[in-house]
C-alpha cells in the first residue's frame, strides 16, 4: 500500500478549513490544518508535507508571503494559492498554481491536488551510488 500524501491546508475561515479537511481525508490524504501563517510555518518545518493549499487572505501574513517563506524552506513542495477576492493573473504570486475559490468545483480542486501531489517540483537529487554508476558507465564507454 502506498503511503498517504500529506497536505497542509491554511485558511483563517475555520468552516472552509473543516470542509476541505473532510473532503481530502475521505479521498485518502492526511491533512494538517493551520489558521494563520505562523502556525503553517511551524507545521511545515516539523512535518513531511507533500503539498500546501493556502488561502491568499490570511491575517498578519497573506498566503503569498507564506508561500515565499515555505519555498525558502523546501522549494520542491508544490503549493496552491486560492482566493475568493482576487482572480488568476490579477496579482503576481509565488505559488505553483492559483485557483479562484468560486471558479472551480470541489472535484476540480481535488483533481488539481492529485496531479500536483503526485510529483514534487524541482530537480531530482541524484544519489551517490547513482553518480558512481554513471561515472563508471562513462569510463567504460570512453575506454571502448
TrEMBL record:
It comes from the Bacteria. SMART domains: REC (SM00448). Keywords: Phosphoprotein. The keyword Phosphoprotein applies. Residues 6-116 form the Response regulatory domain. The modification 4-aspartylphosphate is found at residue 55. The keyword Disulfide bond does not apply. This is Response regulator. It comes from Acidicapsa dinghuensis.
Amino acid at each position: 500500500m502506498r503511503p498517504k500524501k500529506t497536505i497542509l491546508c491554511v485558511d483563517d475561515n475555520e468552516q472552509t478549513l473543516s470542509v476541505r479537511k473532510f473532503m481530502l481525508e475521505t479521498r485518502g490524504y492526511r491533512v494538517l490544518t493551520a489558521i494563520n501563517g505562523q502556525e503553517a510555518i511551524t507545521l511545515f518545518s516539523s512535518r513531511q508535507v507533500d503539498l500546501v493549499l493556502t488561502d491568499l487572505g490570511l491575517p498578519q501574513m497573506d498566503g503569498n508571503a507564506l508561500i515565499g517563506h515555505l519555498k525558502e524552506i523546501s522549494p520542491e513542495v508544490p503549493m496552491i494559492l486560492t482566493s475568493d477576492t482576487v482572480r488568476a493573473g490579477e496579482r503576481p504570486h509565488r505559488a505553483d498554481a492559483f485557483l479562484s475559490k468560486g471558479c472551480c468545483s470541489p472535484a476540480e480542486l481535488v483533481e488539481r491536488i492529485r496531479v500536483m501531489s503526485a510529483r514534487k517540483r524541482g530537480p531530482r537529487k541524484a544519489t551517490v551510488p547513482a553518480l558512481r554508476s554513471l561515472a563508471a558507465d562513462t569510463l567504460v564507454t570512453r575506454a571502448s
